[in-house]
């Protein structure tokens, strides 16, 4: 039997040796010319296309970007916010991404439920669309020249997702905005048709969200129009099953429907794509892009992919109309496992990065198939088939149970608060990290290379801690931090000390623009080995009588910023992490720590795309946080910190965290969160950020006083000024001391003046 067709829907864009990062950062520093930048980028893209075609993939997505695919779409459609008008070319592109003199950058937001950030389009009142297709057409031409016309498939962000993921400042309904874009999309399709492309991938990730259920009319209209150009369309909906939209979505006038059969790795509730097909059938005459190779997981396929394909054939989908592909773009994976030299031998065969996933796609396409149509859609036989694949596929709950005592502090906040540190009104603190200076990074590198002994390194780090403590005392800050000079990354630092996690040497994944991260891999049962943060805490606390915060990364954040296991549920992994970190909290307490901060900046971003799964996620995520903290004595103050403060919709969960002090990023949301907390009658200490740490601008005393006044005016905590903390928005590690010192001084001065006004 002929093998099934194969396709890709996106690939790492950063280059095997992070070439794009290197050249872009040099370009920004004016050390590389535009010609050099483009030539490196073209080479990286060509290599990626060659790798995919070379692996044997039939249809290769013409992926590739300097920064972000949404930014490229904004540029291509020419929907340029007024503040950037007058700019052109790369200057325009990078100004929108990074800001320019007098023009703040576009917002950045998490893409779907991944850790990738996209640039948020802005639909200003009266916005217009002045397309420039030169870049995308050039890319498709280069792709055709590299791997052949029959293989090169243009990929574009679809109009519905573009509008729904944009910031709509003009208040127009989705249908109207989409309609405004369609002429540009049609013109593009016409030009691509003229270039002889086999099809065009139209990526509509938004259709995997619950909100898409209300968009049938908008989608029908849009795809009717797009289809009219005659070029075959491949509607790609990744990141989850399409849920309730399935019946109408598969009827849209497209030649190919590409679906995600896997969803989030380690999810307890299985992705429903196979179930939807088993129930409703798949329309004859259309091609099914079967996303069965997990594009979000570094784990090799364990047999689920061929089982899914076999099930599709049994359900009557003709092998000739099935394509094997990844569940989501492979951009979320490191590029090549072969770059790793330190992965344990027994683990290596069980892992697959982007390159290795290509091999899996080909292998699955060649696997033997069962007889077609033995289980008609909608019959009990079909349902049984789904059940048997599901059993193979689903992550198991380890049954790791936590008891009531582990879920609850021994005393409620109202009782325990009085036993904790008592400070003056508007107590001041910071969020944890201080500037990671070139000197600190140099020390770490020298230590890594063996040029600086561990003992000497520790001494140098102690010096930086001492500097931070002295500075904070001199500034009259109330609750001090040690500054985190010993930490590269808030997840890596903990992961390296726990059992059950491994780290890659070159497993870079794009987070945004030129920022790449190396997420750890959870590969076994996570457990506590020995205290992780106690030495640095003890050094800091020994230098001052003021309370120093113990500083931990929470279990949910460690999980959400790692590649999880797929054999056991995320919930089970979160609890394992929580039980390990719980021992760290006890260790800190035993070392005399009176305030422990457990950061959970990634709590919100783990929310599933389907609204009906939120409660399930929040239930175990908050439980994991609680398990970490409840070991604390009533006298110990538990602080948490959340970034991206837009969490009005999960207020119940925030309350259930039961932290004694909640510090939140606030400056970008204009006190909205403080008002929301006040309205919800949130009743524990709150520290809304008084200034934006993402900006090098030093906030004035007056500015910070206005912020504090604004918090008080919300009526939060009944205006109890001892419970309203004054702190920056987030950690300061990306800032320099030159702006950090005056900013913190102004912050303390503002708190002082506010106290005097009481
Ligand atoms: N304690 C961490 C820091 O200050 C918190 C960082 C974060 O929330 N992203 O860097
Ligand atoms: Zn933060």
From TrEMBL:
Annotated Cobalamin-independent methionine synthase MetE N-terminal domain residues: 6-301
Keyword entries, A-Z: Amino-acid biosynthesis, Metal-binding, Methionine biosynthesis, Methyltransferase, Transferase, Zinc
CDD domains noted in UniProt: CIMS_C_terminal_like
All copies of domain Cobalamin-independent methionine synthase MetE C-terminal/archaeal, residue ranges: 426-752
Signal peptide bounds: none
Protein family membership: Belongs to the vitamin-B12 independent methionine synthase family.
UniProt keyword Transferase, yes or no: yes
E.C. code: 2.1.1.14
Pathway annotation: Amino-acid biosynthesis; L-methionine biosynthesis via de novo pathway; L-methionine from L-homocysteine (MetE route): step 1/1
This protein's name: 5-methyltetrahydropteroyltriglutamate--homocysteine S-methyltransferase
Essential cofactor(s): Zn(2+)
Pfam families for the chain: Meth_synt_1 (PF08267), Meth_synt_2 (PF01717)
Catalytic class of the enzyme: transferase
Spans through the membrane: none
Record carries keyword Nucleotide-binding: no
Functional note: Catalyzes the transfer of a methyl group from 5-methyltetrahydrofolate to homocysteine resulting in methionine formation.
